[in-house]
C-alpha cells in the first residue's frame, strides 16, 4: 500500500473503530436501562399486591370459586412438572377445607393433543374432587386471558387464584388494573426452579405493555374442548 493510500484508508478505519465503540456502548446502555426497568416493574408488582396473597389457609377468606391457572403436566416425558402438581394439591386443599366451593381450571387447548384444563380435571377427580365442582376454561392461553375471561366470560364473583406466589403476583396486578376482585392462595414453590422465576421478570414487562395498551383476551367465547 502506498503512502497516499495509507493516508486515505487509516483515517477511515479509525472512524469505523470510533463509531463501532460508540454503537457498542449505546447498545449496552439501552440493554442496561431495559434490565433496570424490568427489575423495577418486578419489584413494584410484588409490592403493590402484597396484601392479596395468603399462605395460611386459616386466614384465607372463603370464596365461591378458585381460579386454577394452568401449566403443562410434564417437564418432559414421564417427568412431572412440580408447578402443576403443587397447584392441584393446593386446589384440592381449598375444596377439602371449605375455602372454595368450585374450581375454574383455565389453560391452553389450542390443539387436540394439548389440553391443560382436561388434564387438570381428570387429575383433580382422581384426587377426590367431584366433576360437579369443576368448570373448564379451554381458552386460557395466557395468564392475561385467564384472568379477564374469568370476569368477562364466566362472570365469576370474587375469587381465589391458585398458583405459585410469583405467578399470583402478576395475575393479581392484572386483576387490580382491570377491576377484578381476586386474592391468591399460594401453592408450594418447587426447589431450585430459578429459571422460571427469571422468565417471570420478562413476563411482567409484557404484562405492563398489555395493561397500558388495553389488550383483550384472544377470544371472549366459551370455547369447547378440542
3D architecture notes:
There is one protein chain. With 226 residues, the protein is an alpha/beta fold. The chain is 50% helix and 16% strand. The strands form 2 sheets. The chain has a 6-stranded parallel sheet with strand order 1-8-7-2-5-6. Strands 3-4 form a two-stranded antiparallel sheet. Helix 1 (3-48) packs across helix 6 (194-212) and helix 4 (143-152) packs across helix 5 (165-177). It is elongated. The model has no long low-confidence stretch (mean pLDDT 88). Residues 65-187 form the DUF218 domain.
Topology, element by element:
Blueprint: H1 3-48, E1 53-54, E2 63-69, E3 74-76, E4 79-80, H2 82-96, E5 100-106, H3 116-126, E6 134-137, H4 143-152, E7 159-164, H5 165-177, E8 182-187, H6 194-212
Parallel strand pairs: 1-8, 2-5, 2-7, 5-6, 7-8
Antiparallel strand pairs: 3-4
Helix pairs in contact: 1-6, 4-5, 5-6
Membrane topology: Single-pass membrane protein
InterPro entries: Cell_Envelope_Assoc, DUF218
Subcellular location: Cell inner membrane
Quick gist of this model?
With 226 residues, the chain is of the alpha/beta class. The protein contains six helices and eight strands, in the order αββββαβαβαβαβα. It is elongated and about 80 Å long.
The percent of residues in helical segments reads 40-55%
State the strand order across the main sheet. 1-8-7-2-5-6
Q: Kindly estimate the percentage of residues that lie in beta strands according to DSSP.
A: 15-25%
Q: Spans of 5+ residues with little confidence (pLDDT < 50)? A: none
Span of the ends, CA to CA: 71 Å
Query: What string, H for helix and E for strand, traces the elements in order?
Result: HEEEEHEHEHEHEH
Number of helices: 6
Amino acid at each position: 500500500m502506498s503512502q497516499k493510500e495509507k493516508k486515505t484508508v487509516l483515517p477511515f478505519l479509525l472512524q469505523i473503530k470510533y463509531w463501532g465503540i460508540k454503537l457498542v456502548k449505546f447498545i449496552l446502555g439501552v440493554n442496561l436501562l431495559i434490565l433496570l426497568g424490568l427489575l423495577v416493574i418486578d419489584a413494584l408488582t410484588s409490592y403493590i399486591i402484597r396484601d392479596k396473597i395468603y399462605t395460611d389457609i386459616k386466614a384465607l377468606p372463603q370464596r365461591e370459586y378458585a381460579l386454577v391457572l394452568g401449566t403443562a403436566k410434564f417437564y418432559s416425558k414421564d417427568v412431572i412438572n412440580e408447578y402443576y402438581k403443587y397447584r392441584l394439591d393446593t386446589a384440592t386443599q381449598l375444596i377439602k377445607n371449605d375455602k372454595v366451593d368450585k374450581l375454574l381450571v383455565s389453560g391452553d387447548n389450542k390443539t387436540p393433543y394439548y389440553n391443560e384444563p382436561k388434564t387438570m380435571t381428570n387429575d383433580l377427580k382422581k384426587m377426590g374432587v367431584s366433576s360437579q365442582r369443576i368448570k373448564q376454561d379451554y381458552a386460557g392461553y395466557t395468564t392475561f386471558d385467564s384472568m379477564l375471561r374469568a370476569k368477562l366470560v364466566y362472570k365469576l364473583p370474587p375469587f381465589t387464584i391458585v398458583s405459585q406466589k410469583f405467578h399470583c403476583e402478576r395475575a393479581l396486578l392484572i386483576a387490580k388494573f382491570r377491576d377484578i376482585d381476586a386474592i391468591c392462595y399460594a401453592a408450594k414453590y418447587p426447589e431450585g426452579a430459578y429459571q422460571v422465576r427469571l422468565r417471570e421478570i420478562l413476563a411482567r414487562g409484557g404484562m405492563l405493555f398489555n395493561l397500558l395498551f388495553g389488550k383483550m383476551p384472544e377470544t371472549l367465547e366459551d370455547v369447547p374442548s378440542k
